[in-house]
Sequence to fold (269 residues):
Amino acid sequence: MGKDITAGLLPYFFKPNVTILSLYFFSIDAVDDHQFIANSTDLGAFTALAIKRNTIRSEEGTIINELEIGLDNVDLAFKNDIIAGKYNNKRCKVYLAFYNGVTYVGKQLIFQGNIDEPKGDEHWVTVTIRPFPILEQTFPKRIYQSGCNWTFCAEGCDLSLTNYEVNTSLTAQSDGQTLTCSHGEAADYFLPGFVELTSGVYDGQARPVLLNSTSTITLRIPFDGVIANGTTLRVVKLCPKNYEACQSVDFNNFDEYGGYPWVPKEPIL
Fold:
């Protein structure tokens, strides 16, 4: 929406022999693909177009502007594109154009937005321009969720993964499910979490933790065979994505929590 008139254009509102016309820039991409002027003849770079612009109005809280476009004498490429829907949800800018009888002297933006699906036939179509297309999207009723949106120890979370992982090694041969090692953490500290072997036959393979004591880790899914004593491993604590864990002594990170602890029964928005 244009609110302020460019200072250099103000005199043209009052000068004699100045005609104020309407310019329409239709854009599929970033460039202005078609530039039309509401006139009976072309004016410089602007192609004449039979077009009627209705009064800007408000509909359900959204300001909209409707255009009625005559397609009988318009450029064939534009006609085919708009009928085919290529301009659906694409940009349209509406300007006031100042013409002094000899040349075009300037333009003032008065409205812009995205175009909805055209309605009509091959002779005339009506389109609606809405300046805030994101407000027209359909969103799920429940836009709140209790679980955190952030990836653990990534942007938004602001914790460091190095503080929640232990690199150690087996102190005894393992059957593939129970790993004996010195990780230095309390019972069930690594719930949720995972173990990644960093040497040996299963180097690079990882398994989720079922439970852990102060000296052992039991895996939810065992490795395929015996793991030798001395095999190195990496044990990583993960986040359960709930606010209780986020505000606990383990993380103490509730200020960065990326969810809603209490989801409202009825959506507010």
Summary: Residues 195 and 207 are 5 Å apart (CA to CA). The chain has two domains: 7-136, 161-238. The longest strand covers residues 104-115. Helices lie at 76-84, 243-246.
